[in-house]
């Protein structure tokens, strides 16, 4: 009967509204994740900047030590080269780690963008379906009023 169909359409409409609400929550969560990833990326960039500054300071110190005396020249040079090797190794490790995380972030951002697009499309389709159902309910209610006259 029409009353049953109307009730069914109302339930379907309520379900769709709940699904849209859930998707909006999911979308907000995805946006938060994206912001968290961007913040992590920024922190990693700062760490690399600090390591590069540390390396530069170490190089400058080593160069000054070389100029102080002829006697300490060889010892300071060896010390500087070793320190430089270690720092360069650390920088390389940090840059490798940064690049891995950056690539991971890029992949995550692409995946998130894809999920967002899918969610947006699904939400748009559900809104369209909801509008159609609301129009159908309105039409059925008009028919019901006409029949009740």
Structure description:
The chain is mostly helical. It has a single domain, classed as Helix Hairpins (Orthogonal Bundle). Helices cover 98% and strands 0% of the residues. It has two helices and no strands. Helix 1 (2-68) packs antiparallel against helix 2. The longest helix is centred in the C-terminal third of the chain and has 79 residues, at 70-148. The two termini are 17 Å apart. Keywords: Coiled coil, Cytoplasm, Cytoskeleton. It is found in: Cytoplasm, Cytoskeleton, Microtubule organizing center, Centrosome. InterPro entries: Centro_Cilium_Assembly (IPR052116).
Low-confidence stretches: none
Please tally the β strands and state the result. 0
Sheet with the most strands? none
The ordered H/E elements are HH
Intertermini distance? 17 Å
Strand content: under 5%
Inertia-based shape: rod-shaped
Structural class: mainly alpha
What is the residue-mean pLDDT, rounded to a whole number? 93
Q: What's the assembly state of these chains?
A: single chain
Rg for CA atoms: 32 Å
Proper CATH architecture? Orthogonal Bundle
CATH topology: Helix Hairpins
Number of helices: 2
Q: How many separate domains?
A: 1
Helix % is over 70%
CATH class: Mainly Alpha
InterPro entries: Centro_Cilium_Assembly
Coiled coil: 6-146
Main location: cytoplasm
Protein name: CEP83 protein
Which keywords apply here?
mainly alpha, Helix Hairpins, rod-shaped
Topology of this structure?
Elements: H1 2-68, H2 70-148
């Amino acid at each position: 009967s029409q009353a049953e169909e109307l009730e069914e359409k109302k339930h379907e409409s309520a379900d769709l509204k709940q699904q849209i609400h859930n998707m909006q929550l999911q979308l907000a969560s995805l946006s938060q994740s994206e912001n968290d990833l961007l913040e992590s990326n920024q922190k990693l960039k700062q760490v690399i900047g600090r390591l590069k500054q540390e390396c530069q300071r170490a190089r400058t110190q080593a160069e000054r030590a070389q100029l102080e005396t002829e006697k300490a020249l060889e010892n300071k040079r060896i010390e500087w080269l070793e320190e430089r090797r270690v720092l360069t190794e650390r920088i390389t490790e940090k840059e490798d780690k940064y690049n891995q995380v950056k690539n991971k972030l890029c992949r995550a951002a692409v995946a998130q963008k894809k999920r967002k697009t899918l969610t947006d499309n699904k939400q748009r389709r559900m809104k369209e379906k909801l509008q159609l159902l609301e129009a159908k309910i309105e039409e059925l209610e008009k028919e019901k009023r006409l029949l009740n006259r």
